[in-house]
Amino acid sequence: MLLRAIGRSAKNLVSVRNIALSRASLGGGGHHHEPTPVYTPKPGSLDWYLCGNNKKSAHEPEPYIPKGDDYGSFVGAAVFVGLTIAAVLFKTDAFKKDTHVHHHVQKHETSHESSSHAEPAHEPEPEEVEAVAPEPVASTSSPSSEPTPVAAQTSEESAQPSTSSQSEPAPVQQETPEVSTPTPEPVSQSSESSASSSSPSSSSPSTESTPQKSEEASNESDEKKKGLYCEYVIIGSGTAAYYASLAIRAKQAEAKVLMIGEENELPYNRPPLSKELWWYGDENSSKKLDYTALSGKKRDIFYEVEGFFVKPEDLPSATHGGVSLIRGSKVVKICEEDKTVILEDGTTIGFGKVLIATGTRPKKMDLFEKSSNEVQNKITYYHYPADFKKVENSLADSTVKTITIIGNSLIASELAYSIKRKYENVNVHQIFEEKYNASDILPEHLAKKSTEAIQKMGVNVHSEEKIGGVRKCCKNVVLTMKDGSEHRTDLIVIADGEDVNSELAEASGLKINSVNGGVTTDKYLKVSPNIYAAGSVASFDDSVLGTRRLSSWENAQISGRLAGENMVLNKNEKDEKAFWYQPSFFTKFAPHLHLNAIGQIDSKLETVAVYAEPEKDSQIERAVVFYKSKNGGHIVGVLLVNVFGPSLDVARRIIDDRKNIEDLKELAKLFPLYEAPKADE
Amino acid sequence: MSFHQILKISPTEFWNDIKNEYIQKLSNTPPDEVYPSNNPGPTLPNGNVNFECHCVSHLVASPCGYHFREAINCQKSTNEEDIEKGACGQQLLSFMECANRTQCFKLSEEKDEKK
């Protein structure tokens, strides 16, 4: 299938597949705790004795509340596993007819019976298994010893260790660590893939857990020691942190990862806070932070459920590793020499590799910070789930009839649009000092169009306005403009820039980029041999576009994964991967203005916009905007307006190739600015 | 030349031949070959399962990641006939039991309330 040629032969090749869906359901960004006084040590002011001397006992873990009765569905591996489930269903029927197996079963009948007696104790759990697989669980809970003899068909020797584990009093479920150790043996004997059997043994030296038996014996004393150490420590619990933890576990099968997040929530997706939760949410959205995706499925903003995370105190003894999460805890310093991190409460945790993924927080406005408590109650800086809840609740119960958003950023603009879209009868105002929405990013003609579009839907945009003062008056808050005019509102929402959460790095003596405020890393996202940084906190070396810091969700995902990967590669003294895959971002803050962009999207650069004629019926405009480098004029950024298809990859290709194209109208032909004429077949 | 140029392209212009060699080459490239994916995909060059595929990220990262790997590796190295007869059942069962015990995966429909 070719990008254009087929279009010309009238087949609609580039299906206008709605990238909006995949982008919208991905979302993302930085993260931070609710506005509390930020601990900002001056470099060098922190007592250095904290490094290496603190012997406080392990952190008090969060109580783990196991969820109720329902069985988790297999996300993602449904295809892999679904067939196997069907196979297991067949297996349980076919199995009983298998004489070979019966022979083995009779031998170990007593042990089989004892384990089957023990099994019913666990049946409440299997029973609650959904229709997905009731048979295998219920019927195999008793013949649980049988599968291993089946596997032993392939090799007699392995029958011994497998079934001997069955004869132990405790049923399969509790003894999973021990049962699973023999199981690799049949696997490796029946197949060439030594991956599974080698992975437990090869990675155990690389984990902190000592061999199983001795580990369980010395579990208690180890726990105390290991509670203060984790091979991979991630500071932050947002998108970059989450994806880093996935990448580490993917590359190192038995890895133990400890995420330490300041926020109290489980790791979550940020963009829906100003997009999907408003667009597709309902009256319950603020409770569960969920919405109904276009596919019809209910989705919430959390990446994982609580059960995904191993309890911190269980991590040291987790045979096959896992990801642990400490919530509501702030790391105040990294001691590079001792390879420890220090928490606010004084706890010290040792690490092998550490990742800084602390993200950003909303920029505060002096005027509001200095205002009275009464006024401050009417102000919300928008960034956290709690902010969404506050704004949504007050709009839902109509305590807020007039809302004013301050700033012309993408978040501010998205909020103005999203709130007006959901609450048509609420007066939505947006106030900013600049001339148009998103003027940092969009060339003026496009910024103007977008502002007009948002005004057309009913948002009152007050551009080029400066706020001089604020006061409480009756039930509202009154903003006094510099020109003397007053603006009365029920609630003020501020989304006017961000500050990087780099204080930790600063306190630890790490380098901060003076231009973008991020923690300086090289092209491998490495700060120093054992310290990495990813997400919106990181100022990294992009070999094509130079030193950058990006706050988009996709960057958090991409850099999080890359940093995690490199941490493992580095540990194993393998070659690390340099940053290469350009993240994109998506924004929508006006009807019919769907923006996707890659690269340096900076309105201070020279731009060339190629517009198609508006669509006859809908009047929707499509365009592609090329951002040109200051040095050389090659394309360093591409912004797509209502353009989909494989365009982002085309943009990545163009940016990578650093092409300097004279005729940008020609280059625009690579993007579906026009739909292919209908086929006559 | 203004700092922010606006060009308009008509349908006729758009569908006209591309003269620039580089652009022409790109336009003839299949969409999935224009740029490599960040996702390495489910299969390694040697045919083995690639557990670094983004498609299984959260499964291998979960507390049941080990059991998942075991189950998949077993499946991959066993022919369909044997799977139907029951091979790899233990591995799958271990995985399911782990997932049930830890409740590590999201529910498909109703969810319990989260913080």
From TrEMBL, chain A:
Residues 107-124, 213-223 have a biased composition (Basic and acidic residues). Its cofactor is FAD. Residues 563-619 form the Mitochondrial apoptosis-inducing factor C-terminal domain. Residues 131-152, 175-212 have a biased composition (Low complexity). It catalyses: A + NADH + H(+) = AH2 + NAD(+). The keyword Protein biosynthesis does not apply. One of its GO terms (cellular component) is mitochondrion. One of its GO terms (biological process) is apoptotic process. Residues 153-168 have a biased composition (Polar residues). Residues 101-223 are annotated as: Disordered. It holds the Pfam family Pyr_redox_2. It is found in: Mitochondrion. Gene3D superfamilies: 3.30.390.30, FAD/NAD(P)-binding domain. It comes from the Eukaryota. Keywords: Apoptosis, FAD, Flavoprotein, Mitochondrion, NAD, Oxidoreductase, Transit peptide. One of its GO terms (molecular function) is protein dimerization activity. Residues 232-559 form the FAD/NAD(P)-binding domain. Belongs to the FAD-dependent oxidoreductase family. This is FAD/NAD(P)-binding domain-containing protein.
UniProtKB/TrEMBL annotation, chain B:
GO terms for molecular function: protein-disulfide reductase activity. One of its GO terms (cellular component) is mitochondrial intermembrane space. One of its GO terms (biological process) is protein import into mitochondrial intermembrane space. It is found in: Mitochondrion. The keyword Oxidoreductase applies. It comes from the Eukaryota. Keywords: Disulfide bond, Mitochondrion, Oxidoreductase, Protein transport, Redox-active center, Translocation, Transport. This is CHCH domain-containing protein. It comes from Caenorhabditis angaria. The lineage of its organism: Eukaryota, Metazoa, Ecdysozoa, Nematoda, Chromadorea.
